[in-house]
Each structure stands twice: as structure tokens, then as C-alpha cells.
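Hi P.,

Sorry for the delay on this. The queue was packed all week, but I finally got your sequence through. Input first:
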Amino acid sequence: MTTPRALPTLFVSHGSPMFAVEPGTTGPALFAYAQSQFSGEDLRGVLVMSPHWMAPEPLIMGHSSPETWHDFGGFPEALYALQYPAPGAPELAQRVQTLLAQAGHRAPIDTQRPRDHGAWVPLMHLLPAARVPFIQIALPTHASPVDLYAMGQALRSLKHEGVLVVGSGSLTHNLREFFSEPAEHSSPPEPYVTAFARWVERALVAQDRDSLFDYRQRAPQAARAHPTDEHWRTLYFALGAAEWGTALAPSVHYLSREVMHRWLAMDAVAFHAPA
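Then the structure:
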């Protein structure tokens, strides 16, 4: 019997809700990657951690058909008409709960939670047919990078079970600058945005855990890139699920290095388990 291949683990930047209708080069890159990597046989479900669902503990979405929640205001009407009607996955929710419990994490199942834009917007580009069952897990409010990495590690077996684990955030996320100095979609990036993003890339490729876990002190202008760090911390969840920085050392594949609207680094990264 052939052993199923290990699926990659992803970190994707979702930027602004406008990413749904302004895909730039990142949206097509996500679609092309999914087309090259996944078939109906090996992709059985998707688990996403988004910074737009935060809770004191890691709640798990358990509805069989969660609604598409337009959890934003002041955007064009076209955004509010969008739907991502992928089925839910109550059985996957139970599996996630079991794995977390085995690692000592309490994780109740929430049967009412809809999907927020931090999850469904990037999935619209990655898997636009909306056929693959898809659930979310809440970002624990006070979890440290080490805590989130450990949570991801507890779920590392999912990639051998046909489940794509995704951390959705933004590689840079200074909303004060974004709203106070609006820029066109294709405006040249602010220099610190590029400097921060490429520092992260070097740390990821080098599997440099010490630097990445201490990014606030070591990365260039980290506090400016992330005045608050909820859009950053989902990266550690993805890294734990990928077993990045361990002896297994998954390879690092960049799908996008785009910067949108001058301030938003839209980096998307796939972590592939060794063959």
C-alpha cells in the first residue's frame, strides 16, 4: 500500500479585504500553486488560523456549512456579495480537538462561528471552486510564538492525512500608515517593508529559530511592521505544523513577494516536507 504524500503547510498574507477583488500577482500565484500541488484525491480538508478570530483558547469551527462572514466595513459593495460556500468539516474539527488534547491543549468546538475574511479571502484564490471542506481554529489571544509553534506541532500529523494547514496573516500590517497615507495598488513599497520581509525570508530559509522567535528584537523595524502582532503570530502556527526548524527541515518555497498599496507585504510561503 502506498503511503500518502505529506501535504505542504502554508503561510499566506491576506492583506486588505480588497485582496478578494484586487488579486495582484499574489492571487494568481496561489491558484497556480494549488493547481500544481493538489488533486481531488490527496486534499481532504483545509484548516486555517486567521487573526480575525481570536479567543482566550483555541476554539475550533464545527459547523457543517459555516456562513461567509463579511467582517469589515466601508468597502465597495462588490465585496459584500462574495460568498465562499465550501462545506464545513465536523469530523476534522473533532480530529483537531483530539490531537490538541493529546498535547495538553483544551480546544472546545464552536458550532456557530462563521468564516472570517482572513480565511475565506485567500481561499477564494487558492481553491476558488470551494469544494474542499474547510474549517478554522481561533488564534489564542495571549499565546506566545512558542505556544503557537507547539500548537502547530501538535497538528503535524494532519499533513499526512490529506489536510492542508494554513496560517493566514500579513507579513507587514501597519494599518495606521495604510489608512493615513493611502497609496495605489501598485505604488512602490516603503523601504522598511521590503527590508523586514527579506529579513524574514532569510531566517525562514536558514531555519533560524532563534532569530525568528526573537523577531521583535532582531528584525529591522519589527515594531513598525507590526504595531500589534496578531497578523504575524499565525506564522508560528504554520511553522509548527510544518515541523520547520527541526531535524526534518522542510524546504521553503516562496509563492509571492508582492507588496500592495506601499505598506502591505503579501508574502506567501509553502513549506514542503522532505520526500
